[in-house]
Amino acid sequence: MNMNLYGHAGQWLMVDCGLSFDEPLTPGVEGAVNHEVVAPDPKFITDNLDLLAGLIITHAHEDHIGAVEDLWPRLKCPIYTTPYTAAVLRRKLGYTHFADKVRIIEARDGEQLTIGEFAVTWIRLTHSLPDPYGLLIETPAARVVHTGDWKIDRDPVIGAPIDARALQRLAEQPIDALVGDSTNALKPGWSVSEAECFDGLLAATQKAAGRVVVGCFSSNIARLVTLARVAQRTRRRLAVFGRSLERHVATARAFGLWPEELELITHRDVGYLPPEEVMVVATGCQGEPRAALSRLANDSHPQLALDKGDTVILSAMVIPGNEAYVQALVQKFHGRGIAVIQKDDTELPIHASGHPNQEELKQMYSWLQPAMVIPTHGEAAHLQKHAEIAREVGVRRTLTGRNGDLFRIAPIPSIRRAAVYTGRIPIAR
C-alpha cells in the first residue's frame, strides 16, 4: 500500500498510491476484521490539497497504482508516469465516471519534469513487470533517489537490463539520500534472473502427463512470455484465465512486448483439447477466493474442469499473510488428485523475485554513493537489516522508522516520530 509524500518549500509531491487485499484496518490487533480491499488513509494530504503538486506512479503493480481509481476524486491532482504504466492506469480508470477528468502526463526514460517545487528525473530499472522506474527528486535543499521496486536483472526477458553507467552518472553530483526497497534485505546473495525460470518451468511441464495450470502474477509479462515459450516447446496451447491477465496481455501486445510468434487461444477453446495439449495461466496465485485458480480448485470454473493427474504450478512467492489461503488452495487440489508444484519443490527456479537481495543492495550503493539511506517497503526486521547492509558498505547515515514518521533529509537529517496521522480505509468494489 505504497503512498509516500516528499515535502519542500510548502509543497508536497506524492509518489505511488497503492492498495492491499484481505487485510484489517488495524494490523496486529486481535480479532480485527479483514476487509477485501484496503488503501492508505490520505487524510493528511487531502486536508492540505492546495499544497499537493502532483502524484507520480513508479510502476503498475497494485500496491503502487491500485488505489488511484478510488482515491483520485479526493486528490484531484495531475498524475505523472511512463507510457506503459499510463496505459494500465487508463484501462483501470476506464471503469470510472471521471476518467476524462484525470490529467496523465507521460515521462520517458531519463526525462526531467518540473512538478511544482520539484525537478524529477525518471530512472529506468528492472522489476517483475514492464516499465519500472525509480526517481531522482531534486530541490535546492537536496537530491534524493526514490527507487520504488527494483532488482538487478541482467536478463529480464522483457525490456533492457539496468544501465549501470546511467546510475553512476547520477552520482557525479552528491546524492543526499536514497529511499529504497527492503523487501529482500534478509536474503543473501543475488536474486534469480527472470530468464532463469524457463528451464525450471520447462522441466516441470515436461513431467506433467495431463493439463498444466500455472498461477502467477498477471502483471509479470516476462513470466507469461516464458510460459508461452514453454508451451510452444512442449506442444501445448496456451490460454489465460482471468480478466487481469487478459488486460495485461492486451496492454503488452499494444506496446509490442508480446512476441508475434507466440500464440494464445481463447479460454473457450481449452475444454475441447486433449489434456496433454493444454497449458492455462490463471489468476489467483495467492488463494484469492473469487479468482480463476480457486474456481478451478472448487471445480466451478465455467470453461474448464480439471481431472486427477493434471498439474498445477504456482510460479509465484507467497506474500506474507497469505499462507493460509494458499495452503487451503493446495489442499483442495491435492484432495482431487491434482499435483501442485511450488517454488521450493524444484531444484531449478520456477519463480524469480522482483526485489533486490543483499548483494544487489550493495551494488546499488557502490553505483550511487548516497550519503544517507532510508529503508522502506518491508517489516521492521527488513528495514533494520537494510540499514545494517548500507552501513557495512560505507553509507554514513541511515534512518529507519514507521508509517507517519517525518524524515528530514536536509539541512540536518533527523526523524520526527508520528508527525502525521496515518491509517487504513476500506475500499468498496
From TrEMBL:
One of its GO terms (molecular function) is metal ion binding. It comes from the Bacteria. Keywords: Exonuclease, Hydrolase, Metal-binding, Nuclease, RNA-binding, Zinc. InterPro entries: Metallo-B-lactamas (IPR001279), RibonucZ/Hydroxyglut_hydro (IPR036866), RMMBL (IPR011108), RNase_J_2 (IPR042173), RNase_J_b_CASP (IPR055132). Residues 1-201 form the Metallo-beta-lactamase domain. The keyword Cytoplasm does not apply. Gene3D superfamilies: Metallo-hydrolase/oxidoreductase, Ribonuclease Z/Hydroxyacylglutathione hydrolase-like. PANTHER family: RIBONUCLEASE J (PTHR43694:SF1). This is MBL fold metallo-hydrolase. It comes from Idiomarina aquatica.
